[in-house]
Write a structure and sequence with these properties.
Elements (H helix, E strand, L loop, with lengths): L3 H11 L8 E2 L2 H7 L2 E6 L9 H10 L3 H6 L1 E4 L3 H13 L3 E6 L4 H9 L3 E5 L3 H15 L2 E2 L6 H17 L5 E5 L4 H13 L4 E7 L4 H8 L24 H7 L2 E5 L1 H15 L5 H12 L1 H4 L3 E6 L12
Parallel strand pairs: 2-10, 3-4, 3-6, 4-5, 7-8, 7-10, 8-9
Antiparallel strand pairs: 1-2
Helix pairs in contact: 1-3, 3-5, 3-8, 5-6, 8-9, 9-11, 12-13
Keywords: Lyase, Pyridoxal phosphate
Pfam families: PALP
Family: Belongs to the serine/threonine dehydratase family.
Length: 312
């Protein structure tokens, strides 16, 4: 496991390739939540999501020989974009496996960033098989979107920045899908805060992380019927031990609560967030009593939205 000193060094190394995103507040949303809420706006990150951090960290960890052969990943959108842009910034090839069901806006963005797309059936098995074939044919290094330690460490730098700007936070809440952001955040909180807690938030429709924390082993979902398309993946053996050890709890929310939270952020803060990014604020609105009087930090994970398919 990485040390605090190594984590700090990693952050400085990726700083050239990422943005230090702003932290925003809304008096009206504070009133609705009945507490102080701070939003770390990773929707303003390069390529529009926090995943630029992890992709950059993972690529920088490769040797020169490995980089020359490129990188490959499978992703429904945001990590695909992140790997494509990170690879372009570092001048290496990026091979991206995307399910045929991925939003067209995200496919278009990958192409813009120089990623070479291979489409497959919308199943984890098909994605993994296609990525493995490319890895074998090209010698490219596979980067997992969330279950890779360097990716996890990179994602955690958002929380490090958060705590540097607002060290008095009582809790940081992130959405959880594959678990990379939540695990990285928990590590950063452990390193840079004394009293802050880390909490995850996810839809009831894909509550595998909640059930995993309850059972102590990785659980899976039988269906993925949620508007939060970025949260349909499962935890992995790299991030789950961190989550199990360092995350206080995971709060589940209903689909309508996600839509309400998303709409509030759009209307009141005048910023674009994707459904997955609204899940953490939905959790605060659902559990107002739990957070009353607390200073709550929320990581807005991304803002890559198909504007032709909004839920409101």
């Amino acid at each position: 496991m990485i040390s605090k000193e190594e984590f700090t060094t990693l952050h400085s190394e990726i700083a050239t390739y990422i943005k230090r995103t702003p932290i925003m507040r809304s008096r009206l949303l504070n009133g609705l939540a009945e507490t102080e809420v701070y939003f770390k706006c990773e929707n303003f990150q390069r390529m529009g999501a926090f995943k630029m951090r992890g992709a950059t960290a993972a690529i920088l960890a490769l040797s020169a020989e490995e980089r020359a052969k490129g990188v490959v990943t499978h992703s429904s959108g945001n990590f695909a974009q992140a790997v494509s842009l990170s690879a372009k910034s570092l001048g290496i090839p990026a091979y991206i496996v995307m399910p045929s069901s991925a939003p067209q806006v995200k496919k278009d963005a990958v192409k813009t960033y120089g990623g070479q797309i291979t489409e497959c059936e919308p199943t984890i098995k098909a994605r993994e098989a296609a990525a493995a074939k490319i890895e074998e044919e090209t010698g490219a290094t596979f980067l997992h979107p969330s279950n890779d330690l360097n990716v996890i460490y990179g994602q955690g730098t958002a929380a490090k920045e958060f705590l540097e700007d607002f060290p008095e936070l009582d809790v940081i809440i992130t959405p959880v899908g594959g678990g990379g952001l939540l695990a990285g955040t928990a590590l950063a909180v452990d390193f840079y805060a004394e009293k802050c807690k880390t909490i995850g938030a996810e839809p009831f429709e894909v509550d595998d992380a909640y059930r995993s924390l309850e059972s102590g082993k990785i659980e899976f979902n039988k269906t993925t019927n949620t508007i939060a398309d970025g949260l349909k993946t499962n935890l992995g053996d790299k991030n789950f031990p961190i989550i199990k050890d360092k995350v206080s709890e995971i709060i589940r929310v209903e689909e309508e609560e996600i839509i309400t939270a998303m709409k509030l952020i759009w209307e009141r803060m005048k910023i674009v967030v994707e459904p997955s990014a609204a899940v953490a604020f939905a959790a605060v609105l659902r559990e107002k009593e739990k957070f009353h009087g607390k200073r709550v930090g929320i990581i807005i994970s991304g803002g890559n939205v198909d504007l032709s398919n909004l839920p409101f």
